[in-house]
Design brief:
4-stranded antiparallel β-sheet; 290 residues; 7 helices; rod-shaped; Serine Threonine Protein Phosphatase 5, Tetratricopeptide repeat; 34% helix; Immunoglobulin-like; alpha+beta; single chain; 3 domains
């Protein structure tokens, strides 16, 4: 059961509104505004926030007293409409002339802004990187609510240079950041089984092997070619990872030598005389044949 005085104030509020509308009670706009504002306060006591808010609007329309903006801002705040409360507090600060009331308006505005978060969206490359906001792991995609003010961002990933950044978040706004981590270079060591071989990387100038120290290379794919006189060229495509070291061994194969041509041609064997199947010729025939 509601307390008896709530019904009393409800009747009083109704009577006040009726008196304002009655021409007999003719008042100035300022007086009417004050009367409506008193009724609005009663409505708030009765728990009728919407009716109270509507009356405060009417009072402000009759006489734009800046303090009425603060009354409406408090109602918006209680209804958890921080954006609406912010707008009214800002109007109060801008239009108020009384120093004490300006201080109250600023305090109310600051309190709302502290509770009115902004949205932070961070795009990172690589996507698997760890993101810390103010030292705490944070899921920043598709976005995270964060209080207004200055914050610290740290993005890290094994094999990449850690990036730190200071950023500001505005209440009720959206802050977008893009962080692309820089990969730490990798190292490549090249060895060969042939002394005096030469090494070529990505079509750059050839270098003699062995190398004094491993090559420092950007992560990614690289073309390697090792050559030596009298040997087949050795080629490979290597993948260098961030902050990694790769060692390769080029085993060259000797070129096949041409077959030797003999210095002299041996004499052909003698050709045998054809054989006769008939009887051997006599001496006279032999002389004729000779």
């Amino acid at each position: 059961m509601k307390p008896w005085w709530l019904g009393f104030f409800g009747c009083l509020a109704t009577a006040c509104l009726a008196s304002i509308a009655d021409p007999v009670f003719a008042q100035s706009a300022k007086e009417k505004s004050a009367a409506v504002a008193r009724v609005a306060a009663v409505m708030l006591e009765l728990g009728k926030a919407e009716q109270g808010l509507d009356l405060f609007r009417k009072a402000y329309k009759l006489d734009p007293e800046p303090a009425l903006l603060g009354q409406m801002a408090r109602i918006y705040d209680k209804q958890r409409d921080l954006a609406g409360a912010r707008g009214l507090y800002e109007r109060w600060v801008q239009t108020e002339t009384d120093p004490d009331k300006i201080a109250l308006a600023k305090a109310g505005l600051a309190d709302v802004l502290d509770r009115l978060t902004g949205n932070l969206v961070v795009s990172v490359v690589p996507a698997s990187a760890t993101v810390l906001v103010d030292g705490l792991p944070t899921r920043v995609w598709p976005g995270v609510e964060i209080k207004r003010g200055t914050h610290e961002l740290e993005v890290s990933q094994a094999g990449y240079v850690t990036t730190k950044r200071t950023f500001a978040v505005l209440p009720g706004g959206e802050t977008r950041l893009t962080v692309k981590l820089q990969a730490i270079p990798g190292r490549l060591a090249v060895h060969c089984n042939v002394a005096g071989a030469k090494f070529m990387l990505d079509d750059a100038d050839a270098k003699p092997l062995p190398l004094e120290q491993p090559l420092v290379l950007l992560p990614g794919r690289h073309d390697v070619r090792v050559t030596a006189e009298g040997y087949e060229a050795w080629t490979r495509v290597v993948e260098i990872g961030p902050d990694s070291e790769l060692s390769i061994e080029a085993n060259l194969v000797a070129l096949a030598k041409d077959a030797e041509v003999p210095s002299s041609v041996p004499a052909a064997p003698p050709v045998a005389a054809p054989k006769h199947d008939g009887p051997e010729p006599d001496e006279s025939q032999q002389r004729f044949i000779d």
